[in-house]
């Protein structure tokens, strides 16, 4: 697709229904992001998410999207300790959840992990720019690479990620000018989340684009639906129906086949 100049479409999903909607809509890829910690588990960030959380959500997504390229996201703590640990945990995504690839955050400081996982025969996606797992060091969820010095750091990271064997790179919240430079410089596909148009495809978080995640909305999100409103209104209508005995109606019940007298004999 990169060679043909065809844009890849990529979205996050964390459960069976969302994955099946994504597959029906013809998305090219699904990411089971550790953003699941915020979008579906209600944590303030991604740091508390465990390997077991990720595996069980990856399994649900795979069941919902059996024919889509699905990337499993390695959670904080699952690849930082050692190369060996990184490979063991990366293998779990393939063996237990049938993932097509894994993604991990960071540039030069995780190069040995990218190489080790890649040498194990696993497709690795890199992820630099805003990296939520290390957002403490970045001073919060903030755009990255906006000055020449930090842009240069990210370019060096990108090149080394490719050289280490990664098969794709995700840029998060960096200027489109930098995205374009990196996408042209690298032979592997470069994808954007909040990194502008000039690259090989786009990723969005389903909870953001569907209007399900209410805590905050990053600048780079385009809202395509208001699902939180739809669901809340449906619940309110249900409450109102029950309180006022408008539900259930006759069509919602199983009438007895025998007369009431037969019941009374019991
Ligand atoms: O977990 C996730 O959804 C991600 C994206 C924010 C890039 O890693
Ligand atoms: Na993530």
From TrEMBL:
Alphabetic keyword roster: Cytoplasm, Magnesium, Metal-binding, Methyltransferase, Pantothenate biosynthesis, Transferase
Cofactor(s) named in the record: Mg(2+)
GO cellular component term, pick one: cytoplasm
Active site as annotated: 172 (proton acceptor)
This protein's record includes keyword DNA-binding: no
Gene Ontology biological process terms from the UniProt entry: methylation; pantothenate biosynthetic process
Function: Catalyzes the reversible reaction in which hydroxymethyl group from 5,10-methylenetetrahydrofolate is transferred onto alpha-ketoisovalerate to form ketopantoate.
Family as reported in the entry's similarity comment: Belongs to the PanB family.
Name the record gives this protein: 3-methyl-2-oxobutanoate hydroxymethyltransferase
Species of provenance: Geosporobacter ferrireducens
Lineage: Bacteria, Bacillati, Bacillota, Clostridia, Peptostreptococcales
Gene transcribed to yield this protein: panB
């Amino acid at each position: 697709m990169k060679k043909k100049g065809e844009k890849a479409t990529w979205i996050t999903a964390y459960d069976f229904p969302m994955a099946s909607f994504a597959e029906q809509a013809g998305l090219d890829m699904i990411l089971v992001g550790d953003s699941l910690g915020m979008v579906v588990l209600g944590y303030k960030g991604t740091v508390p998410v465990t390997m077991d959380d990720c595996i069980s959500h990856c399994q649900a997504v795979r069941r919902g999207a059996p024919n889509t390229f699905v990337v499993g996201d390695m959670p904080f703590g699952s690849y930082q300790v050692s190369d060996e640990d990184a490979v063991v945990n990366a293998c779990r995504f393939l063996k237990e959840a049938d993932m097509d690839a894994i993604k991990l955050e960071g540039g030069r400081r995780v190069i040995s992990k990218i190489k080790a996982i890649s040498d194990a025969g696993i497709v690795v996606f890199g992820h630099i720019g805003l990296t939520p797992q290390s957002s403490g060091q970045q001073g919060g969820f903030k755009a990255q690479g906006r000055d020449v010095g930090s842009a240069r750091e990210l370019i060096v990271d990108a090149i080394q990620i490719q050289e280490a064997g990664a098969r794709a790179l995700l840029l998060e919240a960096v200027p489109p000018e930098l995205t374009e430079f990196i996408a042209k410089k690298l032979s592997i596909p470069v994808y954007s989340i909040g990194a502008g148009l000039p690259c090989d495809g786009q990723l969005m978080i389903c909870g953001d684009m569907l209007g399900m995640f209410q805590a905050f909305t990053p600048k780079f999100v385009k809202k395509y639906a208001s699902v939180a409103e739809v669901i809340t209104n449906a619940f309110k209508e249900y409450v109102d129906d029950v309180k006022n005995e408008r539900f259930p109606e006759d069509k919602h019940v199983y009438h007895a086949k025998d007369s009431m007298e037969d019941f009374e004999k019991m």
